[in-house]
Write a structure and sequence with these properties.
The complex is a heterodimer of chains A (250) and B (390). By secondary structure, chain A is an alpha+beta fold. Chain A is 32% helix and 16% strand. Chain B folds into two domains: 38 residues; 291 residues, Formate dehydrogenase/DMSO reductase domain (Formate dehydrogenase/DMSO reductase fold). The chains are: A alpha+beta (250), B mainly alpha (390).
């Protein structure tokens, strides 16, 4: 080999090296800057009480087949609109079930089960899916990237992905296209000091009283008393996720 | 020296790759503006065709490094001259796959959030490190191969790349393996299955690219090299078939999975068709015939076999990803269920044009990177020139 090609070769290598270093700098610098900004931000003030475990008891023996009051109340409360397509958000739905062996039927409202060991929180790459100290499982709409891994992981089909631009949102319930969402246990009500969710309230108003909401950790609460006295089950209890929603009569 | 015709062809290929990539980016932009409502995905099938393309490219990116590993880690002289091309293809496929994965996010503009917020219990978060680490390690590996002063470091870099890609594909398989909620996934077999699948898919992609490069340069692979590479692909296909069979057999062993297996293998319409016809017959049995039958062995037959393996890979991934989600969740075992949210029903999924275009755009990006890489640096395998034999 003559010296000339080597010189050309060497120049190209040097150029590639400089280009690679420059590119790496350009790609890394904004990230480093953002980390600094994030660290400088003031810490959030804690709100949720770790002594509380919010939960629900759903008594399917009192739930009327065909009654959708809890579903409608949820849609109104959270500004969800009436779902018509498989892409529309459903935070709570009624499932009609019939045992194959016995033919026994029940009507079951199903929503986010607010697991103590939520698989959606485990799999979320950015930590947008999180569990509050009081047991409520939520999605941080600012850090959800819309990867939908939580929807793959949820055993209850409880989460919805916002498939199109939204209008007329409720100020209490921020939502956004491209993010995943699910039942919040009406966290905006609880944080205002109210004591019940829209679905439980509607069920009581309809005269069924099939949904009892409350603090499972407070021995004096109605929900704690009821789950102590009657047999209840958790959906997919075999997965040992310890859901905060319990069912009676299934 | 590069001739005028070569230069013209290069720019034609760049224009073609650029156009396909641009169409893919346009499709992603349309999805971004209108939302995922314009895709076939919904709240039941949440990952669709873009994931099929993305996971194919990411898994093949790992497998395509095999050629380099066999060359520089295990010292096989036939594979050594092919190591640089293998490394380049790995980076290109990874970039194409990640482009599709990222642009299919609900909020692709928040990718910076994914790069600055990590939840270390998430397999996805590990994969962010595994993918970026892979690109870095393979880039260093390529550097040690091209820079004569660092040639001695090529073996340690090759070993690092080998280990890293095993971990990477374990991570890809585990994205599904850890999903306890769904009957199609939740299996410890998925990590090794994905690793073995990556071997075949990666080698098939390598053979297709190598065949194209040889044909454009009017060169032919030495018969012995062709025989070795085709035997290896045949062995990889057989190993993949074996692990896929074991995966389904273990599922059939558990009584509660029988319904799902009947769906995917017999009753599920498009899914059994794609599984048996696409993956097993066209993607495995036929290519093995082409590769192992002594009368058929030729450059054309090996290329056809490699293309069939790639087609079979897409068929298998569609069955695995979409079929696994189409089967309803078993929230109430032992019950028949119905709801306004399609509980208990098989979910329908029909991919739309933006999904196809985004996926193909990712392949275009990988093609573009490969074309530019091959032009800028010397990636052409040189085994028929005795002077550069090691």
């Amino acid at each position: 080999m003559s010296g000339e090609p080597k010189a050309v070769d060497g120049g190209r290598r040097a150029w590639l090296g400089v280009a690679a270093a420059g590119l790496a700098g350009v790609m890394l610098a904004p990230g480093v800057r953002l980390i600094e900004i994030a660290r400088a931000a003031p810490a959030r003030t804690g709100g949720a009480d770790p002594a509380v475990r919010w939960g629900m008891l759903i008594d399917t023996t009192k739930c009327a087949p065909g009654c959708e009051d809890c579903v409608t109340a949820c849609q109104t409360e959270n500004g969800l609109g009436t779902p018509t397509r498989p892409t529309d958000a459903r935070w709570i739905r009624k499932i009609e079930i019939k045992e194959i062996k016995t033919g026994r039927q029940a009507s079951v409202p199903v929503m986010c089960q607010h697991c103590a060991e939520p698989p959606c929180v485990d799999v979320c790459p950015t930590g947008a899916s999180f569990k509050r100290a009081d047991g409520i499982v939520l999605v941080d709409r600012h850090s959800c990237i819309g990867c939908r891994y939580c929807m793959m992981a949820c055993p209850y089909k409880a989460r919805s992905f916002v498939h199109e631009p939204l209008t007329d949102q409720h100020p209490d319930v921020p939502r956004g296209k491209g993010c995943v969402e699910s039942c919040t246990l009406c966290v905006h009500r609880l944080d205002r000091g109210e004591k019940t969710t829209a679905c439980a309230e509607a069920c009581a108003k309809a005269g069924h009283g099939a949904i009892v909401f409350g603090d499972l950790n407070d021995p004096g609460s109605e929900i704690a008393r009821r789950v102590r006295e009657i047999q209840t089950t958790q959906l997919r209890a075999d997965l040992k996720l310890d859901p905060g929603v319990r069912y009676h009569g299934i | 020296m590069k001739t005028i015709a070569e230069t013209r062809n290069f720019w034609l290929l760049v224009a073609l790759g650029g156009l396909v990539t641009a169409v893919g980016l346009g499709a992603a932009h349309t999805m971004e503006v209108h939302g995922h409502v314009i895709t076939g995905m919904d709240n039941a099938v949440v990952w669709g065709l873009p994931h099929v393309f993305a996971i194919f490219m990411i898994v093949a990116a790992s497998g395509v490094l095999n050629v380099a590993s066999i060359g520089s880690v295990f010292g096989q002289p036939v594979y050594k001259p092919r190591a640089p091309l293998s490394g380049l293809l790995s980076i290109a496929l990874l970039a194409g796959g990640l482009m599709v994965l990222m642009l299919d996010l609900g909020r692709p503009e928040r990718v910076i959030v994914a790069a600055t917020h990590y939840n270390f219990s998430s397999v996805f978060a590990w994969n962010v490190f595994l993918y970026s680490g892979m690109v870095a390690i393979v880039a260093v590996y390529l550097w040690t191969m091209f820079e004569r002063r660092f040639n001695a470091w090529s073996k340690p870099a090759g070993i690092a790349a080998l280990v890293w890609r095993f971990v990477l594909t374990t991570g890809t398989g585990s994205i599904f393996g850890f999903l306890v909620a769904r009957q199609a996934y939740q299996s410890a077999l998925l990590a090794p299955l994905f690793i073995v699948l990556s071997f075949g898919w990666g080698l098939a992609v390598f053979l297709v690219v190598q065949a194209a490069m040889y044909r454009w340069n009017d060169r032919h692979l030495p018969a012995e090299t062709l025989a070795r590479l085709s035997r290896l692909l045949g062995v990889f296909i057989a190993a993949s078939l074996y692990l896929v069979a074991v995966y389904h057999l273990t599922n059939l062993y558990f009584a509660r999975q029988a319904g799902f297996e009947a769906f995917i293998l017999r009753d599920g319409g498009i899914f059994p068709l794609l599984f048996w016809g696409g993956y097993v017959l066209l993607g495995s049995v036929l290519p093995m015939g082409l590769l192992f039958h002594p009368r058929w062995r030729s450059e054309g037959a090996v290329l056809a076999a490699a293309l069939l393996v790639v087609a079979g890979a897409f068929a298998w991934l569609f069955v695995f990803i979409v079929g696994g989600q189409a089967w309803p969740l078993d929230i109430f075992p032992g019950h028949v269920v119905s709801s306004s949210f399609s509980d208990g029903q098989i979910a329908a999924y029909r991919p739309t044009a933006p999904e196809w275009l985004l996926g193909i755009g990712g392949l275009g990006a990988a093609f573009l990177l490969t074309t530019i890489g091959v032009r800028a640096l010397d990636f052409m395998p040189q085994d028929d020139l005795p002077a550069v034999k090691h």
